[in-house]
Design brief:
With 180 residues, this protein is of the alpha+beta class. Helices cover 31% and strands 38% of the residues. It has 3 helices and 6 strands. α2 (61-78) packs parallel to α3. The longest helix has 30 residues, at 149-178.
Length: 180
């Protein structure tokens, strides 16, 4: 077939056998851009991508707020519109929820001296509020060291949350570009 573009994605709409021939009807997304242009374009969410709401659960409100802020930043850097948590009881069809939970563990080692080492783990899920379906999951870990144990924990949570937010945003972007 002669093409003046590149098939980026396709969906099989119908398959049937007719007069000994297999006929397949597809819907294809054909791009006229070069591969490099497509890669640059697809690095950000498509136009009309859903807005993102972030909710993080942690042992204390400050850790939850710090983690939520870092996750939001990851989605913003990827090009998503991040909104405040909705007070509406009916889910909006133009939003996805990002829900997460953090955990902290302490590394004790006499070689650390007066330093405190914290290891944080965050697990985030992107959820479609219309169906309750989990669209994707990401888990990240990070460590931090400080003279103050609270600061070490805060740094570890923030680092893990930033990694999780960026990774989830990149995966969600790729997933959205696969849809028609």
């Amino acid at each position: 077939a002669d093409s003046q573009g590149q098939i980026q994605n396709y969906q099989v709409l119908e398959e049937k056998t007719e007069a000994g021939f297999l006929k397949i009807r597809i819907r294809a997304f054909v791009s006229r851009r070069s591969t490099e242009e497509n890669k640059a374009l697809m690095a950000h969410p498509p136009e009309g991508a859903p807005k993102i709401e972030v909710r993080i659960i942690s042992k204390d409100a400050e850790s939850a707020a710090r983690a939520a802020s870092a996750v939001r930043a990851g989605f913003r850097e990827q090009g998503f519109s991040v909104v405040e948590i909705s007070t509406a009881t009916t889910p909006s069809d133009s939003r996805l929820w990002v829900r997460g939970q953090t955990q902290i563990s302490w590394v004790t080692d006499p070689r650390l001296g007066s330093f405190h080492s914290a290891r944080a783990r965050i697990q985030v899920e992107v959820i479609d509020p219309q169906t309750g379906a989990v669209v994707l999951e990401k888990s990240q870990e990070a460590s931090a060291l400080d003279l103050d144990s609270d600061i070490a924990a805060a740094k570890a949570i923030e680092s893990a949350a930033a990694l999780a937010g960026t990774a989830a945003a990149q995966d969600l972007t790729a997933s959205l570009w696969k849809r028609f």
